[in-house]
Write a structure and sequence with these properties.
- The protein has 9 helices and 4 strands; from the N terminus they run H-H-H-H-H-H-E-H-H-E-E-E-H.
- With 190 residues, it is of the alpha+beta class.
- It folds into 2 domains: 7-96, no CATH class; 108-187, 3-Layer(aba) Sandwich (Glutaredoxin), CATH 3.40.30.10.
- The protein has a 4-stranded mixed β-sheet with strand order 2-1-3-4, with helices on one face.
- Helix 3 (38-48) runs parallel beside helix 5.
- The longest helix is centred in the N-terminal third of the chain and has 13 residues, at 10-22.
- The chain is globular.
- The termini are far apart.
- Bound molecules: FE2/S2 (inorganic) cluster (FES).
Length: 190
């Protein structure tokens, strides 16, 4: 039940309240969706198959991010409508957890952990190396749409620091010199 506690911490409430105060449309329920795309149909089917909608928000958002690659406002509104919860609550959770993103990502999503254990073991240099070799900036998709590089807080594998993930696959104890090979591995999949 740790999730329930986290959902209602100060940061989430702050995000939710600020939306209501600013009159942001995300604080209102979405009125309806017309002509579902196949991505929305997949998400809809996932939600319909849930044993219960209660407490399912994080699981649904994970699934939505897997389907869409990121969580734009339209997708957040769809989730809110289907789970019958305020859109502001969905937005609060999306902005609280660093593994959720509102920005479009590359086909290969690289996450560099910048938590303390990884940082002291050179994570910053690894992040810079990815950006330098890909010719991009943190959180910006490469021009060819293939890669995006993000910096995250601790991803729970501190014993393997420094750690990165690519589309959810973990790479531990990596060195700057490994970055080139990791990029080549994914370019080889195209
Ligand atoms: S600090 Fe990087 S995995 Fe924990």
């Amino acid at each position: 039940m740790q999730i329930i506690v986290l959902l209602y911490n100060d940061k989430v409430l702050e995000n939710v309240i600020s939306l209501y105060i600013c009159g942001d449309p995300r604080s209102l329920s979405m009125k309806g969706m017309v002509g579902l795309t196949s991505e929305y149909e997949k998400l809809d089917a996932f939600i319909k198959n849930l044993p219960t909608k209660k407490g399912a928000l994080i699981a649904v958002l994970h699934h939505a991010q897997d389907i869409f690659g990121y969580l734009p406002v339209e997708v957040q509104d769809f989730v809110a409508q289907k789970l019958e919860i305020p859109a502001a609550k969905v937005y609060g959770v999306v902005t609280f957890y660093s593994f959720f993103s509102q920005q479009k990502k590359g086909q290969f999503r690289i996450n560099v952990c910048m938590g303390t254990a990884c940082f002291v073991k050179g994570a910053e240099g690894i992040l810079e190396e990815f950006n330098a070799l890909l010719g991009t900036e943190t959180s910006v998709v490469t021009d060819d749409g293939l890669f995006s590089v993000d910096a995250l807080r601790c991803i729970g594998a501190c014993g393997l620091a420094p750690v990165i993930t690519v589309n959810g696959k973990y790479y531990g104890r990596i060195k700057k010199s490994d970055v080139k090979d990791i990029i080549a591995e994914y370019k080889g999949k195209i």
